[in-house]
Amino acid sequence: MSFTTAFGKNLQRPTIEVYFAASSLTAVLHLLNEVLDNIEGYHDFYLLEKAPPRSWNRNPARELLQRAPDCPSGEPGHQRTEQPLF
User: Fold this and answer.
1) If I label 10, which of 39, 46, 55, 76 is the partner at 20 to 30 A Cα–Cα?
2) Residue-range domain boundaries for the chain
3) What is the percentage of the chain residues whose pLDDT exceeds 90?
4) Is the Cβ–Cβ distance between 65 and 45 less than 8 Å?
5) Cα distance between residue 70 and residue 57, in whole Å
6) pLDDT greater than 60 at residue 9
7) Which residue has the higher pLDDT, 22 or 35?
8) CA angle 62-56-53, nearest 5°?
9) What backbone phi and psi angles, to 5 degrees, belong to 47?
10) H helices of 1-86, where?
11) Residue 4 pLDDT > 60
12) Mean pLDDT across the stretch 11-36?
């Protein structure tokens, strides 16, 4: 953004600065194209990254209790419960 801002300001100045601004147009376009390429590369990398699907209703503590086997001793503190902890 700073490239285009400086370029636009130089176009509104005296004639000699407009001339130098116009001569730097190719450099500004080249830099903007490089920025665009970098953004596309990072965007593609981010979308291709493997991640497990997320669930908004997920309660990890409850899932652990549901997967845990029942305690053979029959103690109430070690039995699996179907009620949420919180």
Assistant:
1) 39
2) 2-48
3) 0
4) no
5) 25
6) yes
7) 35
8) 95
9) -75, -30
10) 2-11, 15-23, 25-48, 60-67
11) yes
12) 80
